[in-house]
Structures are given as C-alpha cells and as structure tokens.
Amino acid sequence: MTPRDPTLYNEDLAPIPKDRRTWGLYNYVSLWVAMSVCIPTYMLASGLIAGGMSWWEAIATIMLGNMIVLIPMLLNAHAGTKYGIPFPVLVRASFGVRGANIPAVLRALVACGWFGIQTWIGGQAIFSMLRIIWPAAAGMPGGIWVCFFAFWALNIVVIWRGIETIKFLEGIGAPFMLGVGLLLLWWITGKAGGLGPVLRAPSKFHSAAEFVRFFIPSLTGMVGFWATVALNIPDFTRYAKSQKAQALGQAIGLPTAMTLYSFIGVAVTSASVVLFGEAIWDPVTLLGKFNQPVVAFIALVALLIATLNTNVAANVVSPSNDFSNLNPRLISFRTGGLITGVVGIAMMPWKLLSDFSSYIFGWLVGYSGLLGPIAGVMIADYFLIRRAQLKVDDLYRRNGIYQYDNGVNLRAVVALVAGIVVALLGLVVPPLRWLYDYAWFVGFGVSGAVYVLLMQRVETPANVPEWEGEG
C-alpha cells in the first residue's frame, strides 16, 4: 500500500477495520434516542408553539422536517459504512485532500455554536439548582456566568477523559432527559386540567397565507436542526456492521425519537399558555416555577446530566475530528475538543437563545444555508460522479486522484460558494427573502447542480485503471 502522508493521517482519521465495526441496529436506534432527547429538541418544538402553531401543526412540521433530513443522512452514511472513514476524510473526495478543510471547518464552527448553546443551557440549570438550595444566590452578581463556566469546565474534563467516558454518558443521559420531560408533562398538564384543554388550544394564524409564512422557514429550521449530523454521520456509521443495520436503525430512531420528545415540548409549552397566559419555551425557566423544591432540584440534576451527555456526543466528536483534519500531526481528538470549547464561548450562545425567533429563524435557518450546499456537493460527488466508488489510499496521500489543483478541487469550492450566496441572498435582498426561508433546500440544489456541471470532464476514480477500494 502507498505510504500515507502524515499531514493527512492519524489514528483518529484512519479507516476502521472490519473487525472493529460492531455497531448494529440497536446501537443506531439508541444513538438517535440519546441525541434527540435533549433540551434543544424540546425548545425546537416549544418555539413553534410560541410562534403561534397549534400542537398538531408543530408536530407535523417537526415530523416532516425529520423525514426530509433523513434522506441526505442515509446517503452520506453509505460511504462511512462501506469504507470505514469519517466525514473530514470522505469530503476529501469532492473538495481535495487540502480543500476538504473548507467544509470541515464550516461544519466544525456550527458544532461549536451548538456546544456553546448546550453549555449555556447547562449553566442555567446549575444556577436554577443553586437558587433552590440557596435563594439568596438569585441576587448574586454574575451568578449565571459562574455557573456557565463551571459547566463548561465539566464538559472539558469529559472531553479530556476521552471517548469511553462519552460512551458511558450515552447510556444514561437519554433516560434522565426522558424522565424530566415526562415529569414536566405530568406536572403541568395536571395543573392545566389534563391534556384536553392543552390540546384544544387553537392556532394563532388567521389565514393560510399567514400560516405558510411561518411554516416555510420553520420547516427549513427543522431540517437545519440535524443538517449538521447529516454531514458528519460517517463519523458514526464507520463503525456499522452493515448498511442495513445503520440505515434501518437511523430510519427507526431519528423520526420516532424526535417526534415523541417533541410532543412533550409541544404539550408542556401549550399547557404553560393555559396556566401562565404565555408560552414558556425554556424548560429551565419552567422548572423554576415548580412549587416543590426537591422535585425541581432532582429534575434539574437529571437535565444537567442529559445536557452534558448530548453536548459531548453530538457536538464534540465531529468538530474534534474536523479540527484534527487541519493538521493531524499536531491536533489530536483531545486538542480538537479544547478548540471546540473555546470557540463555543466566542460564538455567544446566550444571544442565540435570547428568544425562539433568534433560535429557529436566525440560528437554525441561517447555518442551514452553509451546510445544505456542502451536502449537495458531497452527495452529487459520491453518487452521481463516482458511482459510490472511492480509492481509500488516495484519500490519505498527496499527488493521488484527489490532489486536483494543489490539493484543492476548485470546482467544488465554486459550487459551494454559489449555493451559499444564492441561499443567503434573501438576507440582503428583501424581495428574495424566500431564498433564505428555503436556505437548506436552495443551497443543496444549487451547489449539487453546479458541481455536476463543472465535473463533467474531470476523470474520476471509476475511470482509473486497477482501482482498489477498502472495506
């Protein structure tokens, strides 16, 4: 085998051998349950209620969004399972061995933002627990910031201890979070007189046109919620026993877990309208209204553990690999995790969570305009240009078939930029606002189409004599 270039290879980025691919259907179902049962999922659903949807409109929007995002998820998962390679290595096939850093860093920056959001939620939970134990803490200057950085430090400790600690937390986080959700549902619907009054709350939209104006960017936000993992899903499917195991596991786990847990967020937020006259979309704030301090404290502890679990599993694995891809010799998984933590603070998550509009229409829809184009290029390259055939050796060395122009496939970069520009054009040209409202879809379609057109005359691995794959 051709020697691998140390600037493109380390053990974290290496292909997983077949004897270490041990994840079956149950592992992928449980992975999605663990990642879906989290506070951002709850807030995703509650944000739709706060925006004016009825409970069934919110649930239908979330279910449709997850069925849509499952398609690119399964398509990108195929290469990870077939070749045992992670996302930053797979993307070298389309962007080049050096150009892959562009989409990898874009994906990593979004993950850093999510890391900051989850850390801010965890800090709020600690502060709420502190106020229950010590009510005077409510007036302590900078108390929320002390709690935020304390939870940040706890995340860093888990990252430093490595992947086995993350695996342990995966097993206990989801049940805790599910318990908190069911506790909130039981408590608040009891106060509101049962589910009947809660589910009878009507939509606030007075016409179909008014509903559609809210629905379209909301659906894009639902797709954007998992557009991150739709790119880096090979980081997980590289451990799969078979294509059937990962595909069926994801098809069962993602839509089911998201829809069921979203229902809790929808029902609880609808009940808060009945009880308090306003939609309280933040569960930490709602838990603060419990009149039973012991129950509230236990719930907040469970919320804290679950948030820690989701944060390190969903928001550290990918960016750590992506940052490692920048310089594999100098940046390990641990170092990449530390970089993630620092950048997560710099992205000011407290502003991203200031209200439901900033969260859904600013954060989720906005970054979907960056990630949709990457998915368009990746899927077009793997299935339409290469017919699912990769030369794995060349993904780890210079001067191979993925070298392109000094390591960068300029055609992929042009396609990426075209998709991003068109998708985000609506932010600066008001009459074209619909392009932004459909940001993920527009970016995906434009970048995929431009890439296929530009690659028509480029020799691909399927045309290379004596091509060999691995896995």
Average pLDDT score: 84
Count of individual helical segments = 22
Order of helices and strands: HHHHHHHHHHHHHHHHHHHHHH
Instruction: Note the gap between the termini.
Output: 14 Å
- What overall geometry do the principal axes of the alpha carbons give? globular
CATH topology annotation? Hydantoin permease
Question: In the residues, how many domains can be counted?
Answer: 1
List unreliable stretches of 5+ residues: 462-471
CATH superfamily: Hydantoin permease
Count of individual beta strands: 0
- Report the sheet with the most strands, covering strand number, pairing sense and barrel closure: none
Radius of gyration: 22 Å
CATH architecture designation? Orthogonal Bundle
Range of strand content: under 5%
Alpha-beta classification = mainly alpha
Helix fraction bin? over 70%
CATH class: Mainly Alpha
